[in-house]
Amino acid sequence: MSYFRLVMLSLALIPMLSWNNASAQTLLVLGDSLSAAYRLKPEEGWVALLQNRLVEQGSDIKVVNASISGETTQGGLTRLPELLNRHQPNWIVLELGANDGLRATPIPRIEQNLRALIDQSQEAGAEPIIVGIQLPPNYGPRYTRRFFGLYESLAQEYELARVPFLLEDVALKPELMQSDGLHPTAEAQPIVLEQVWPTLSSVMLAD
To answer: Is 180 an annotated catalytic residue?
Structure first.
């Protein structure tokens, strides 16, 4: 192939490459061990199952799992700027707060961090999706009610899509929970996916 034809072919491919990059969409999951497939194979976790389902449905949406076991809202806030810059997501799933609650972090501090996560995501052009978490009842009704209510109130205030409770139909079934009573088993992961799918699909796959 002559040099001239090679240059012309390269120029012809530029618009195509630009269009493909422009059309690429990314969902970033920023969570803790509940989304990091704790003590499971990565491919068994609900986030990996979500990517599989999107592929099966012919979607080219890329799912990036930035979840880390033990992560807190403060830790997520520290990591978020670099993640937003690297992945430039269209949507970001905020599944954080459980470890804050287990450490009895003051509710106002958790709320402040969640607000900052939402604000930074929106400022970067990403649409946040809130995932609600409940705490074990031994933390006391006053604290647990205020904690769980944070997710709904913030979702309403910011008009965000929300998954009411990530472990609905799982948390109270010992056979679906690991021996620590806090993390779902591999068998529970498809059920967790069904909890998040209606909300995520309504946002990502909306016309």
So the answer is: yes
State the SS3 of 113-166.
HHHHHHHHHHHCCCEEEEECCCCCHHHCHHHHHHHHHHHHHHHHHHCCEEECCC
Q: What percent of the chain has pLDDT over 70?
A: 88
Closest alpha carbon to 176 in 62, 34, 54, 8? 34
Q: Which amino acid is at 27?
A: L
Please write the tens of the pLDDT for every residue from 167-181. Answer: 999 999 999 999 999
33 classed as catalytic:
yes
Cα torsion 8, 9, 12, 14: sign: negative
Of 32, 35, 67, 183, the active-site residue reads 183
For residue 92, give the H/E element and its range.
strand 91-95
Q: Which two tokens stand for residue 126?
A: 């990403």
2 is catalytic: no
